[in-house]
């Protein structure tokens, strides 16, 4: 059981890191920019994501949705990357058709709000079940 838990934790960490978007433009922030405040609701959303595994269909969907997100450049909506140097992790809650029904970020602030708005109306491929939690790390 402990081995399975470790595998799940490792897989979740790899998926979260792998889902990061690498789009970065020029910077308009300062080197001494303080980190944004944490969102206390984020941990519950990540727990929901982690509870989806192990599941072969969910694991496959992570790759499909990552490729879709990168191909459609959904993270470039709203020009959010340049607002702050600090990354944002967003968890999208998807319905059965892949429509985003809720967004939750790990932090608060202008950049996080920008990404929440950018993804609020996004459409991804239909997930294997609903609701489906989809985290994305945005730089």
Summarize the structure.
The protein is an alpha+beta fold and 139 residues long. It has helices at 2-18, 42-51, 56-72, 110-120; strands spanning 88-94, 100-105, 132-138. The model is unreliable at 1-7 and 9-29 (pLDDT under 50).
Would you kindly provide a written description of the structure presented here, covering whatever features stand out?
The chain has 139 residues and is an alpha+beta fold. Helix content is 40%, strand content 14%. It is built from four helices and three strands; from the N terminus they run αααββαβ. A three-stranded antiparallel sheet has the order 2-1-3, with helices on both faces. A hairpin with a 5-residue loop joins strand 1 and strand 2 (100-105). The N and C termini lie far apart (35 Å). The model is unreliable at 1-7 and 9-29 (pLDDT under 50).
SSE topology:
Blueprint: H1 2-18, H2 42-51, H3 56-72, E1 88-94, E2 100-105, H4 110-120, E3 132-138
Antiparallel strand pairs: 1-2, 1-3
- Main sheet: strand order: 2-1-3
What structural class do helix, strand and pairing data support?
A: alpha+beta
Number of strands: 3
State the assembly state of the protein chains: single chain
Tell me roughly what share of residues is in helical segments. Answer: 25-40%
Instruction: Give the percentage of residues in beta strands.
Output: 5-15%
Our measurement of the CA-to-CA distance between the termini, rounded to an integer number of angstroms, reads 35 Å
SSE ordering: HHHEEHE
The shape, in one word, is globular
Low-confidence stretches: 1-7, 9-29
Estimated radius of gyration: 15 Å
Largest sheet: 3 strands, antiparallel
Overall average pLDDT? 85
- Please work out how many helical segments DSSP would assign: 4
């Amino acid at each position: 059981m402990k081995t399975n838990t470790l595998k799940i934790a490792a897989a979740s960490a790899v998926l979260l890191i792998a889902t990061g978007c690498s789009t970065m433009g020029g910077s308009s922030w300062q080197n001494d920019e303080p980190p944004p405040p944490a969102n206390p609701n984020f941990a519950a959303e990540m727990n929901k994501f982690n509870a989806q595994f192990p599941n072969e269909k969910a694991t496959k969907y992570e790759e499909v949705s990552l490729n879709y997100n990168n191909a459609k450049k959904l993270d470039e909506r709203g020009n959010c990357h340049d607002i702050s140097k600090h990354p944002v992790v967003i968890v999208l809650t998807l319905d059965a058709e892949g429509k985003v029904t809720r967004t939750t970020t790990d932090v608060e602030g202008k950049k996080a709000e920008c990404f929440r708005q950018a993804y609020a109306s996004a459409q991804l491929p239909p997930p294997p079940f609903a609701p489906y939690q989809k985290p994305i790390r945005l730089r």
